[in-house]
Amino acid sequence: MAGGAVTRFAPSPTGLLHLGHAYAALVAQAAAGPGQFLLRIEDIDRDRCRADYEAAIYDDLAWLGLTWPQPVMRQSDRMTAYHEALARLAPLTYPCRCRRGDIRAALLAPQEGALPAGPDGLVYPGTCRGRSMADAGPDDVIRLDVARAFDALGIDRVAFRDQAIMPGQDHLLTRDQFQEGIGDVILSRRGMGTSYHLAVVVDDAAQGITLVTRGKDLFDSTYIHVLLQKLLTLPTPRYHHHRLIRDDAGRRLAKRDDARAIRSYREGGATPQDIRRMLAL
Length: 281
Fold this sequence. Notes:
The chain is an alpha/beta fold. The chain contains 10 helices and 12 strands.
């Protein structure tokens, strides 16, 4: 939109929102300026998502003074879009039956010391890379063959710029760095039909998001998203990875920390202005 950005806040209804969520939502709204702030519910994990947590999201955000257009996009309503994107990527994917224990054992075999870890945990060693999609079973995840993806695009690196971290400079990963530090990412998880990485890329494009604001903990995931955007010929938005809100011990807040839930502060008599002061906004 002229004079502003289209931003979004995209929580998962798997627990009560905490101060970190409040900060992320308020940053996204402020970054939109005269543009548009959107809300998206990321509820692809049906085993953990609950209707009461989704209702609490709306209630807490409204209490903070946030408003957003209706209807709200919910990922559980968009499986057809994810399946279509996955079908487009099928020539570059393969089924994988490995569990976490299998991956750890495969990585331990040839080396000692720390195991390579990326945005999704241990970097997958490619055990199932030779399998065909025709061999996919109901319990398999679907992985992107990163080497074939780079070949298909004819590129040797992915890059993006960030408004908060070294603004004006490219953040980039070469093909080798991507394979060694991130690996063959999962595009469809067991029982979900998609993954966070695939869904967020498809949804940001569908909503016309021009600026993605989110925590620094997702910085490395952005390389994955830029690669998927190129493969699916989708636009790459601008990015702003902001600071994380931490507890007194320096740990990033988690939903299990009910003491810092927005609901707890509300029940304790805090005002929205109090929350903003706590967050140095």
